[in-house]
Amino acid sequence: MATISIVTPLYNEEKTLPKLAERLKSVFDETPAITWEWVAVDDGSADKTFEVARQAIQTSPRWQLLKLTRNFGQQAAYRAGLEAATGDAVIFLDAD
């Protein structure tokens, strides 16, 4: 069975992140024929995005969280997520 990796760059997304995590989980958990993982990449957020993401990530063993040392931009966050992804296919998904 193929695995889908969803890579999401995060920058100051503390308010939108819980809803995104909830939606991803509900969509993919309702489709048991699909194996998936979520790779969230904090791109140097100035708010509490990393802390909120860390709490969300703990709810699923298929999720991973990366933190860049500063804001490198969306493309760098996509690249970091792509390198960490283990799936057979990758979907890039913005958090907002």
Q: Any overview of this molecule?
A:
The protein is α/β, with parallel strands linked by helices and 96 residues long. Helix content is 34%, strand content 26%. The chain contains three helices and four strands. It has helices at 17-29, 49-57, 74-84; strands at 3-10, 35-42, 63-67, 89-92. The chain has a four-stranded parallel sheet with strand order 3-2-1-4, sandwiched between helices. The mean pLDDT is 93.
Query: How helical, in percent, are the residues?
Result: 25-40%
Poorly predicted residue ranges: none
Overall average pLDDT: 93
Counted by DSSP, the helix tally is 3
What radius of gyration results from the CA coordinates? 12 Å
Write down the secondary-structure element order.
Answer: EHEHEHE
How many strands appear in the DSSP assignment? 4
Main beta sheet, described?
4 strands, parallel
Compact description:
This protein has 96 residues and is an alpha/beta fold. The chain has helices at 17-29, 49-57, 74-84; strands at residues 3-10, 35-42, 63-67, 89-92. It contains three helices and four strands; from the N terminus they run E-H-E-H-E-H-E.
